[in-house]
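Annotators were shown the component list below and the corresponding predicted structure, then asked to write short factual statements about the assembly.
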Amino acid sequence: MKKYTFLVLLIAQVLNAKTGFSQAGKQPNFIIILADDLGYGDLSSYGHPTIRTPNLDKMALEGTRFTQFYVAANVCSPSRAALLTGRLPIRNGVFGTNSANKVFFTNSTSGLPHRETTLAKALKGKGYQTAIVGKWHLGSLPQFLPLNYGFDSYFGIPYSNDMGKEGFMAPRPGSPVTSNNPVLPLYRNEKVLETEPDQNLLTKRFTAEVTDLITKNKNKPFFIYYASPFPHVPLHASPDFAGKSKRGPYGDVVEELDWSVGQVLNKLKELKLDKNTFVVFLSDNGPWLMKSLIDENGGSSGLLYEAKASTYEGGMRVPAIAWMPGTVKNQISSAVATSMDLYPTILGLAGVEIPKDKPLDGNNIKDLLTGKTDKVTDIVYFYDANQLYAIRKGAYKAHFQTNASYSQKPAETHNPPLLYNLEHDPSEKFEIGKKHPEIIAELTAAFKKHVESVVPVEAELDKREAKK
Amino acid sequence: MKKYTFLVLLIAQVLNAKTGFSQAGKQPNFIIILADDLGYGDLSSYGHPTIRTPNLDKMALEGTRFTQFYVAANVCSPSRAALLTGRLPIRNGVFGTNSANKVFFTNSTSGLPHRETTLAKALKGKGYQTAIVGKWHLGSLPQFLPLNYGFDSYFGIPYSNDMGKEGFMAPRPGSPVTSNNPVLPLYRNEKVLETEPDQNLLTKRFTAEVTDLITKNKNKPFFIYYASPFPHVPLHASPDFAGKSKRGPYGDVVEELDWSVGQVLNKLKELKLDKNTFVVFLSDNGPWLMKSLIDENGGSSGLLYEAKASTYEGGMRVPAIAWMPGTVKNQISSAVATSMDLYPTILGLAGVEIPKDKPLDGNNIKDLLTGKTDKVTDIVYFYDANQLYAIRKGAYKAHFQTNASYSQKPAETHNPPLLYNLEHDPSEKFEIGKKHPEIIAELTAAFKKHVESVVPVEAELDKREAKK
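Structure shown to annotators:
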């Protein structure tokens, strides 16, 4: 029997090598497509009744559609910093110490700390061509723009599309954006190409840039970070899409984004790069639901409670689809995973050694993607700015603090914490703490252990000019 | 040019005949699979994160998945009466005049009026073998059992699975079901086969009955009405499914129901009847969400507001999938359709002339199913018991009265009505009446016109014995 066991192991190893991510010795390419403020319920494959997303639905059918995928923060800047570093904002520095400083604003004087090794920088060291297309939002002063972080090229805007003259928040009393809004620049590398570009055309222009980059790099390994500025408000679609969706302007924008994803995947297929390119689509946080201010121009969290800026599920669980035909399994996965997992997963696939100088918060989820396992981790941390509000472990989530941005409920402390079973009750409707003191105890211990493990760094989002 | 126009029309006619529902002159078979209290958000293809429904997802991919499909009532009995007659409860008599009489109870002395022509009766006249498997709930006295309405066979229970000794509502103060619950009988035709059958085995037994009926009738046209008593509470799954779902007991039951649907479709494929059998899966109303009473044992309305017993979308918009490979188009359809459409559609396909003696409330949606059109009607009526609460016309819904069963808000009258754009805002979050007085006027006129058109009949659900 021992002889056979050895043979079986050998065959398994050979098969394993064959089902790896590299094709005929070629290094795999990577494309991350990040939507902005797209809600958990806004794609057809995630149950939206009137938004048509045939390209993303097809991507989901050909790959892995995640149903319990999280981001590391409930707003833009910290979520992006975590995605690119594999580390929680509280460790990489992209956090503020109060609710007015949750993202980089146009008067921010800081950016992503240069001590961080971004995905782009790590891949560049392994010979990858690296590019960012779209929204950066990790610092807008020259020294904090993308080319300082390992990106070979940049075509995009430095902050949110509402932070220029068109800033819809400007007229709002008490808005962090003053009516004296700066302009929205469109960068080509380190130069401002245009100011206040026609936002209706941004999706088309960014799509063309991405497909051009694919074509240009078809014989070299590449990493493209395509961070669409939409469906963040103000909503802008090109004439081909404006007014076409049953869902109104929000639907127009999502349907154009879906078209854009289709263009990218089709280009990969056309150039026969599809089997060697790992593509991930996800959102940076929950949808922006602001009653009376943007109403139906915000997205939908689907069955999840709450929205962007909250640590309830609607703020931090996002649609996420991974794709690489022949390698990433066709499956709907309810495994817990986070945007920070992309860092070690991608670096692992590229054969880059993970820098050991800093603690990582992501896990390599290759075995989830190929279907070899259905669980890599079961812990998720839910931060609001610099404070840990909640923790998920297994099926359970304990909220030690909550805020409800849509319902405009301010932060509230809970002792004992509120407890929910997210697998039974994804909508966080039925509080079950009283029935499960042992789970409260377990999650409280994990909560404390994590908080104690965090070594304080400076809060970069607090650094702002007084005026502007 | 005229010559060509004629030729084009001729070709179109030939193609049209070819894409009809009959195969080589054979009459098509029909199977309606009705789930009980399954919510809009409870299938994987409708966005549930932890319930696995691979068979229904496959059915959806091979057929038409509807995203704006409605039932005629927000609770069991009237919804079922409307499905089987193609007529609103207010016309067929299966309604009550107050909220205590919304369904048939075990002490009801009436049933579906015999003057109605059910789908079974109409098809039987055309040589169809007709069967009901599962829950009837249109009268439990002998003269109101299914064989009185055109069904050749009956294997099932006469009312809800909570109305026997296991009645979970029994201990509840003020419950319409007394603690002196009658037994739950399992019928074979007109005879009680068992009392209080093991509910854990019901799905398996009903599935075997349906697949046996298909085999037995493989050479004759048949109509099977498979009305599962689940996921209505009490939740019961067989040992193969109990404890297997991440979603808990509710998930176990839905996953077994999904398995059951798979068995039915596979049997059709095995006997090569799939291309000649029109199958529809739907739910009878929204999920039962009763805080503290059943909590997470109730389902999910997904992104829709409210639940069973409400006239908000969560109470009356249901998952609905139509299937007939080669004929029903592979599509996600956001066309408005209702359960009452099945009556004229199925009779049309079977070549049965629609009885002209009574007004019908359904429309023939054959052209929606084949993809020839994307709109047949755009009006939906939302009744609560005998009162019209709301109307949908196009994208808009006007609520003249509302009740919110989950939030336990009693009925409230609205003048002017509340107005929502369901295509932009399926969750009924953003009231827009003030901005659209002209739409309020249009919907108010349609509301009045409908109410005036209804000829009163007796309220059968009011007829109950005083005690029992």
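Statements collected:
1. Residues 100 and 176 of chain A are 7 Å apart (CA to CA).
2. The mean pLDDT of chain A is 92.
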